[in-house]
Amino acid sequence: MKKWSLLLLVLFMAVSTFLAGCSGDSSNSGQSSKGANGATKLTLWTFGEQHAKFFEFMADEWNKTHPDKKIQLETTTYPYDDMHNKLLLSLQSGVGAPDIVDIEISRFSNYLKGKPQLVELNDIIDPVKDKAIQSRFDIYSKDGKYYGIDFHVGATVIYYNKELLDKAGVNPDEIVTWDDFREAGKKVVSATGKPMMTIETDGPWTYWPLVVQQGSDFYDKDGKVILDKDINIKTLTFLKQLLDEKIAIAAPGGNHHAEEYYGFMNKGGAASVVMPMWYMVRFTDYMPDLKGKIIIKPMPKWTADGKRSAGMGGTGTAITNQCKNVELAKEFLAFAKLSKEANIQIWKQLGFDPIRWDVWSDSALKEPNKYTEYFGDYIFDVLMSVKDEINSPTVTENTPKMNELVVQTVLYKVLKEKSMSPEQALKKVADEMRKQ
Amino acid sequence: MQTVPRKRTGNGIIFSQKAAPYIFVSPFILSFLLFFLYPSISTIIMSFQEVLPGETKFIGVENYKKLLNPHFYAALRNTTIYTIWTLIILIPLPLVLAVILNSKAIPGRNFFRSAYFIPALTSTIVVGVVFRLIFGELESAPANTLLKWLGLPPQQWTMHWGTGMFLMVFLASWKWLGVNILYFLSGLQNIPKELYESAEMDGAGAFRKFFYITLPLLKPVVIYVLTISIFGGFRMYEESFVFWQNQSPGDIGLTLVGYIYQEGFMNNDMGFGSAVGIVLLIIVFVINIIQLKVTGAFRKEG
């Protein structure tokens, strides 16, 4: 008996020091505490340094216009994987999550599994819904409730290297359909010896936009797997043909974000690349030698009345259910991401195509910045012309896994290893995903 | 009257011979309970659950049934082959190098000892970045330049299964060689010199001395290194992570721990991730038990 009581005492002493440590911690992060100047503290996690700067800027603006409801925004930038995993664990365990958080689209559906641990945002989204690209809200929704607000549309465009096209005597305006593109590609290859385009074999950003562009997807609107649909097989077959005919090559490094790729493109390695608008910053920052040589055009169409863009990628900013000041956080989020001013700032500071199309024609977007210097000031004219042609992908709970398999199995086996036909590979993965 | 007994009990607890052992072991017991036993038990429980916020429920052996899929097999195959390669390279090579470095005849042996050990001090992630650049895909990358020099075609190192496995094994060998040399060196220093002297008097050469004295006397160290290498091989994660960040094409770099991470965190399926973890635990446990039985480590000997 005495032994046990001693043991208990020792345990108690040690545990109490542990607990003391914990309680010290939690009082520090007490989210509802007011700062020294009466400002309410809001915490925000993101995985992008630029996003953090943008939110800090918007918080300053908010404090200028709302002196009665000042906030003190504490932003923390974590590496991509770290942040998403930390968030998953803190939402799973119910403690430690921030008030506001940036969640990347391919991970977003993880947080909607089961009972979403995020706050419904319908009341701030509804007033501006008709002035914005609707599909950008749908990708962060579940059962008609919206949980995230994006930065950008991510309209996919095609970036041509004008120098190479000129050498081959190809006029980009005459490339209307993908068949035109293929013919033009043959000319470019024979005149310059350079491939017409690069295809991601280790990333989704070539195949997926082309599929979404045609109104197809990996899942249909009801969440059923349609990966092995005819359109999808045809699209992949087309890409494989481009590779086989040497009109296109697999992107060096496997995808359009690899160091090898930037170096390759910067030296004028290929005549075009299909990527969303947010890829502009990679050109300005990693491919400085192409300044003035790149022109932005809508994507070629598949059919005469086909669409010429697709909204890809994205980051949904959400409010977690651990937030103590949900109303204030919502108001701030609406101000920072849905207001007209915010959408102009999103372009100015981040170089993204903002979700509200009613600002696209605003004169503020013509003001010179590093993007207009690099590409010219017609960027939003291109965007305006495809405004009604921007499909967004369907995101379901299993999207992270689906994309993983499409990239690692389908694209790799068909385009890189060439050990499977497009049909076989797509069927195989579709069957596997149907079992989920 | 009142203060005396209280003082005595106070002293009694602090100086009591019975309490002292408990106080001394309590940090270990506590950290064991908190950071090992509790997580282990909840992993076992979670492996039978579908873990979703607000909707966690038991689903029987559903998670284990899901294990029968090509990705798990790929992970198991990669991990096993990787482990075998590290065993083939990381035991004989350091052993020979340790014997060489232990001999007084080698000039600058202290320099070599530290030179071999330095890689172990660097972070795998940092080294991985450098390795990724060396083994880049372009023809101008250092490794491909070397191949061209030798008249061989350039490789897309991270795109194929064979070269991918080579990268992981190479990185691991480079990093852990020095550590294993260190183990063997410390073992060698415990072998009495008299044995070698008498063997020399009997006319034994360098090879005979190595096989008949060094190897048998190093056996405990070899078994130890073998055991931790098996653990190390099966828990490998960083070597694959630095090259592919968990996104290896065609699962060429998928390891069991990488699979846990992928399913548990990236796809938010903690229950399934736990099941993979439990299976990994069982595999490592069984292999090591067999290995220790075969090598005779359970028999009581020095």
Task: Based on the model shown, name its key terms.
heterodimer; A: 436 residues; alpha/beta; three-stranded antiparallel beta sheet; 18 helices; 45% helix; B: 302 residues; mainly alpha; 14 helices
What do you see in this structure?
The complex is a heterodimer of chains A (436) and B (302). Chain A has 18 helices and 13 strands. In chain A, helix 2 packs antiparallel against helix 14, helix 13 crosses helix 14 and helix 17 packs antiparallel against helix 18. In chain A, the strands form 5 sheets. Chain A has a 4-stranded mixed sheet with strand order 2-1-3-12, with helices on both faces. In chain A, strands 9-6-10 form a 3-stranded antiparallel sheet. Chain A has a two-stranded antiparallel sheet with strand order 4-5. Chain A is 45% helix and 12% strand. By secondary structure, chain A is an alpha/beta fold. In chain A, strand 4 and strand 5 form a beta hairpin. Chain B has 302 residues and is an all-alpha fold. Chain B contains 14 helices and 2 strands. A two-stranded antiparallel ribbon of chain B has the order 1-2. In chain B, helix 13 runs antiparallel to helix 14. The longest helix of chain B is centred in the last third of the chain and has 29 residues. Chain B starts with a helix and ends in an 8-residue tail after the last helix. Chains A and B meet through helix 1, helix 3, helix 11 and helix 17 of A and helix 2 and helix 13 of B.
